[in-house]
Specification:
Number of domains: 1
Radius of gyration: 14 Å
Largest sheet: none
Number of strands: 0
Structural class: mainly alpha
Shape: flat
Order of helices and strands: HHHH
Strand content: under 5%
Number of helices: 4
Helix content: over 70%
Distance between the termini: 28 Å
């Protein structure tokens, strides 16, 4: 995870700002979903960690166009729906 953030930093420093933001938002969202899946594999039914998905949503609102923001929110909501269907 740290290496992906270092890669995002280097991309940003070299002028590839959009790629850096995509990598960062994707990393935050995927890390949250992986945490939920790991908790479920250990027997916990709590999904309160999904509240942390507000971070990639707010970051995408600030740095993406309206279309990019809506695509990001749709993908995150699809992931949340998928996690809730695992019961």
């Amino acid at each position: 995870m740290l290496s992906a953030l270092v890669l995002a930093y280097l991309l940003n420093r070299n002028g590839y700002f959009l790629l850096a933001v995509i990598l960062t938002v994707g990393l935050f969202a995927s890390a949250t979903f992986l945490s939920v899946l790991m908790q479920r594999s250990q027997g916990s039914q709590s999904v309160s960690i999904l509240y942390y998905l507000i971070i990639p949503i707010l970051v995408s609102e600030m740095f993406f166009s309206l279309r990019g923001y809506l695509i990001t929110v749709a993908m995150i909501l699809a992931g949340v729906f998928g996690v809730t269907q695992l019961n």
